[in-house]
Amino acid sequence: MPAKASHRRPLYLRRPDRRGRFGAYGGRYVPETLIPALDQLAADFERAWKDKSFRAEYARWLAEFAGRPTPLYHAANLSRRLGRGQIYLKREDLNHTGSHKLNNTIGQILLAVRQGKRRIIAETGAGQHGVATATVAALFGLICDVYMGAVDVARQAPNVERMRLLGARVIPVTTGAQTLKDATSEAIRDWVANVETTYYVIGSVVGPHPYPYMVREFQRVIGREARAQALRQCGHLPDTLVACVGGGSNAIGLFTDFLPDTKVEMIGVEAGGCGRRSGQHAASLTAGTVGVLHGSMSYLLQDQYGQVTVPHSISAGLDYPGVGPEHSFLRDSGRVRYLSVTDKDALAAFEMLARTEGILPALESAHAIAALSHLPGNKSGRRLIVVCLSGRGDKDLATVMEQNHA
Predict the structure, then answer these.
(1) What are the beta bridge partners of residue 298?
(2) Taking the complete model, does pTM exceed 0.90, yes or no?
């Protein structure tokens, strides 16, 4: 018989409180000039999310433009290779634009249109969120500026060109480490200066309230589909869910609809870079401490003086020193287990999935694949594991080739 979700709603399923917090995490740590805009955004989102016509329009764009539902694919060769159970991949890489990011950008730009905003700004690391935002902005005829660290501009050249072809202006950021953290800081500065005319599309479950909650709701479609597909295709719920975590949007999207099912194990995988002992990593949840970054309180990488330290990951999308506040809450509650894998392990997983299943995963997703080796063996082979394949790996070919020839 298919499993049913519990009717009891534990603490970790509640909405953020009136201060926009998941337990101790989240909130709003922003300049006063942004508070009215955030209040308006929260009210507009609540109104739209209760509006059947908005939900119907959002669902129509997901189906007709993004190409949802994405398949739940049985990776039989990988399952035999690893011996951890039956591995299924939630194929977000088959979304239009090649990642899960489009789910969120469609929702937020529909809100921007409702608010009458004609200019869109965004930040991006790997370029997937930038491409998704540029795509939807082009669809609705909006001006689009995307902030991107200069280092990421160089290592994600194909996505930079895609954004430009879609009509977006890509603004290289040359401050700090010139990666996602610095791009986010510049986008926030732009928003503070132009909040009356500009909508800021944040690409993950980070930032001040209501962004972590709003992005979670737009990404819940991943888990909602996976849950129904697992029941239909396998006859029962997954035993284990696995997803990579940078800011954490694809992981929250996969996990949220399974949170009531306490027998479903959940694993978030961070970027261990060169190894946590090296100090060159982006493992905020497994090696960070609590602080404030980009408008909310969460676990982050910082030194003894509270200065944010420079993260490292071979994956541009995971190269961020913080994480969404709900992940911090799920970590402390013990509902989700977080671990990290190294650059080396992610590169090996990238090649393993390519050669066993004919799929090139994004380096972000390769971290989730690499974590499968940390699971105990399963002699019966009946354990059901669902991995979120958050994006495709075309954009990472230059990085992989560089590493293979180093």
Answers:
(1) 291
(2) yes
Provide mean pLDDT across the span 258-264: 94
Active site residue 284: no
**Tens of pLDDT, residues 218-233:** 999 999 999 999 999 9
Per annotation, catalytic residue among 79, 249, 296, 390: 390
Mean pLDDT of the chain: 93
User: Active-site residue 185, yes or no?
Assistant: no
- Which of 90, 101, 117, 181 is an active site residue? 101
CA pair distance 123, 125, nearest whole angstrom: 7
Q: Which residues contact 155 (CB under 8 A, 6 or more apart)?
A: 316, 398, 399
- Whether 390 sits among the annotated catalytic residues: the reply is yes
- Alpha-carbon distance 253 to 69, whole Å? 14
Of 157, 131, 154, 161, residue with least CA distance to 144: 131
Which of 92, 123, 186, 217 does the annotation list as catalytic?
Answer: 123
Q: Dump pLDDT digits (tens) for 339-348.
A: 999 999 999 9
